Amino acid sequence: MLLARYQHELIEAGCDEAGRGCLAGPVFAAAVILPHDFEHELLNDSKQIAEGLRYALRTEIEQRAIAFAVASVDSLEIDEINILNASFLAMHRAIEKLHLQPQFLIIDGNRFNKHPSIPHACIVKGDSKYHSIAAASILAKTYRDDYMKQIAAELPEYDWHNNKGYGTLKHRQSILKNGYTPYHRRSFSVSLETDGVMIQVL
């Protein structure tokens, strides 16, 4: 059973990201402010939910949320500032897009770059503990998946409509065969063991 709130005095937004461990595509983040009475028995960490249910939950979250926003940081920015800072930047961008300014943030994970004016708490595995972080994980994941499916049509050989930019064997083989695209993160190394020989692309 997820918890409704971390604290009960201030307007609270939950934040999470998706795509941090990918080889290609942006990192996406969402910020969500939910009503105090929001409950959904199926809401959980997006990684624990089947794709069809994630999209059904996204519709319900967007209909019932007091405020929500989604933002991203692209592969060029990721290479410039590293993926950890890019994840935090995506969250900051989502927070700034909210039409209602939160007074407190709960962040999935154990680290965050402090917002200039909003206090926060980091919650390890927060997407399986708090409604608003779980909701943010759903939005970040589904919006990112939509983006990866869109660019997959442009470059189908990288199988992004299935792997969503993660380093599956087929994806890594395609990088080693066809090279990087503008969507790939050049600061991430790609390796593939073939016949006992490790091939690496930097």
From TrEMBL:
Cofactor: Mn(2+); Mg(2+)
Cofactor note: Manganese or magnesium. Binds 1 divalent metal ion per monomer in the absence of substrate. May bind a second metal ion after substrate binding.
Keyword Manganese included in the entry's annotation: yes
Keywords: Cytoplasm, Endonuclease, Hydrolase, Manganese, Metal-binding, Nuclease
Catalytic activity: Endonucleolytic cleavage to 5'-phosphomonoester
Keyword Transcription regulation: no
Chief location of this protein within or outside the cell: cytoplasm
GO CC list: cytoplasm; ribonuclease H2 complex
GO molecular function: manganese ion binding; RNA binding; RNA-DNA hybrid ribonuclease activity
Pfam families: RNase_HII (PF01351)
A biological process from GO: DNA replication, removal of RNA primer
Localization annotation: Cytoplasm
HAMAP family, sorted: RNase_HII_B
NCBIfam families linked: PRK00015.1-3
Role description: Endonuclease that specifically degrades the RNA of RNA-DNA hybrids.
Name recorded for this polypeptide: Ribonuclease HII
Natural source organism: Mucilaginibacter corticis
Upper taxonomic lineage: Bacteria, Pseudomonadati, Bacteroidota, Sphingobacteriia, Sphingobacteriales
